[in-house]
Amino acid sequence: MAANFSKIxxxxxxxFDKKKVKIRGWVYRxxxxxxxxxxxxxxxxxxxxxxxxxxxxxxxxxxxxTIESSLELEGKLREDKRAPTGFEINATxxxxxxxAEDFPIARDTSPxxxxxxxxLAIRSRKLSAVFRIRSKIFYLLHRYMxxxxxxxxxxxxxxxxxxxxxxxxxxLKYFDTKTAVLNQSWQFYAEAFANVLEKxxxxxxxxxxxxxxxxxxxxxxWHFEVEAAWMKxxxxxxxxxxxxxxxxLNIVKENKKDLDILGKDPxxxxxxxxxxxxxxxxxxxxxxxxxxxxxxxxxxxxxxMKAYKKPLFITHYPSSLMHFYKKRDxxxxxxxxxxxxxxxxVGDEIxxxxxxxxxxxxxxxxxxxxGKDPKQVDWYLDSRRYGAVPHSGFGLGIARLIMxxxxxxxxxxxxxxxxxxNRISP
Length: 426
Known about the structure:
Helix content is about 30%, strand content about 25%. It is of the alpha+beta class. A hairpin with a 6-residue loop joins strand 16 and strand 17.
């Protein structure tokens, strides 16, 4: 039976003009006139307009059917430039599969209500386009990494301590006596694994118990993380910009229709070609006229990006702002061999990376200066005790990458079921 039905995007073709086609999907829109009923049908691939005329076999079911009802239909296809996607099916038969109750979502519905019914709101054409792009980005990241000799390694989601530490950890009881945390990052495990397979990556959820209520923060997000032995900071930056360029180019090639639905100009993404501009933290602070040593927030990053149409690398942040595992610059220990990548147009940080400190004694010295007990990360330090090599890595927030590529205003629209400070359902 399935072979008899076509996906909508397959029948949107002049070669089927005036020929019989069969599709199935859901009613996206309905408009009733005196002797005609217009339906817009959606499936996972696209939408198409359907006409049911009074007196036809499809008329009775077209009258009965409601928004978001599922159906199977057949009819003759014809090209019609007035239709939403340029074609219309003159229905000869409609089979209602699941008759929907009154759909609760109407135009001008509040964002909060849409989040309450997120399981239904994801049916919108806009979000369908976003999620097709999201799926393709995941695929492209995997494809690039495998084509360039990286091995995928899955981290545990439960750990005894966080990689970033602090109050941003979700804690839970682990059996009777122990406490566990949800993983903030794969990095510590990756550094151990880089001594095994040298070039490794993962795409996995990360959890941050941040109480931020901004348009670019969620508490659970998918993290693309990379770690490689023998690579220094500049090597890792080159890899990062090549990956971003690769994703942007291929999204334009393979998801142009979805970009059109979202109103995103593909030329912006075609311009994203390596190399990307680079400035130091010191240069950025001077441009922004902020005090040296202060961290950058969203306002500073977005102000800085007004001058750039490609992602921007900011490098060599003050050591005082950086975690213990980021390598201090041998030429100037007051700064680190680290980098952030800021997206153009949106102006958000999408990548945080660095060369890792490989000297055990230096790490212990930094931890003690910060008042931390090296024993808390003793297993992590074994990678320095037993055959340490230069190595680097980065983490990319996939939701922020999608937000930029799709031209979205809020990170919640990049995630099927987002988790925020105030939302844990549906």
